[in-house]
Amino acid sequence: MPIDVDHPARIVRVITRLNIGGPAIHAILLTRELSALGYHAILAAGDCEEGEGDMSYLLDPADSVRRIPELSRSVSPARNLRALWQLWRVIRSERPAIVHTHTAMAGCLGRAAAILAGVPIVVHTFHGNSLRQYFSPATSRVFLTIERLLAWGTDAICVISPQQLEELSDDMRIAPRSKFRVVPLGLDLAPYFQLPAPDCTAVFRVG
Contact, 168 vs 144, CB < 8 A? Predict the structure, then answer.
C-alpha cells in the first residue's frame, strides 16, 4: 500500500501479550519500523499472566501501545468478551485500514473485533499451531471451527514455512491456499544444518 504523506495508512497490530518469545519481538519491531516508514501504527497488547516472562522492556517510550488488560491467553468467556469489546473500541477509535493479529487468542478476538468494526483489510500471522495436540479433541474441534469462520473474513493469513502452509491449508483445511502467504523467518539457518553431528560418545567419556 503506497504512503499518502497527507493521510498515512493507519495500522493496528494485536498480540495477546508481550511474553518471552519471537512473536513479541516481531510485533514490537514491525510496529516500530512501520511507524518509521510513515505509517500510523499502534500495537494493542494484553498483559502477561503469573509466571510468564514479560518482554515489555523492549518497548521504547515513543512506541504507540494500547494496553488491553482483559486480553490474555486463557479461555474465559466473560474476560474474553470484555477483551473483544475493548479491542472493538480501540479499532473504532483508530479507524485503521489494516488490522494485523498475532498469536491465537489475539487472532481470534482481534479479527472478530476488526470484522465487526468493518476494517477493510484483516491479516493474521500464525507463529505456531495450537490447534493440534494442545487442547482436548473436543475443544480442538471447536477452535478449528472458529478458525475456519474467522479465515472467511481474513484477507491474508501469514505462515512461516511451506510445511505450516501445508498443515493449515491442505491438512486442517482452515482456508484455501490462495489466502496464505509464506513469510519465512529472517534468519538463514542453512549453514547450521550443514554442521556435523555432535560426538555424543565424547560427552559420556568425559562424564
Answer: no
| Cell (9 digits) for 173 | 483445511
Amino acid at 139: T
Cβ atoms of residues 10 and 95 within 8 Å? yes
By three-state DSSP, how is residue 131 classified?
Answer: coil
**Residue ranges per structural domain of the chain:** 10-206
CA-closest candidate to residue 156, choices 135, 138, 178 = 178
- Class level of CATH domain 10-206: alpha beta
User: Given the DSSP bridges, would you call strands 156-159 and 180-182 parallel, antiparallel or unpaired?
Assistant: parallel
User: Residues with Cβ < 8 Å from 47, sequence gap 6 or more?
Assistant: 17, 67, 69, 71, 72
179 three-state secondary structure: helix
CA–CA separation, 78 and 84 (whole Å): 10
Cell numbers describing residue 21: 518469545
Q: Are 98 and 120 in contact (CB under 8 A)?
A: yes
Q: What is the pLDDT of residues 105-161, one digit of tens each?
A: 999 999 999 999 999 999 999 988 877 766 777 888 888 999 999 999 999 999 999
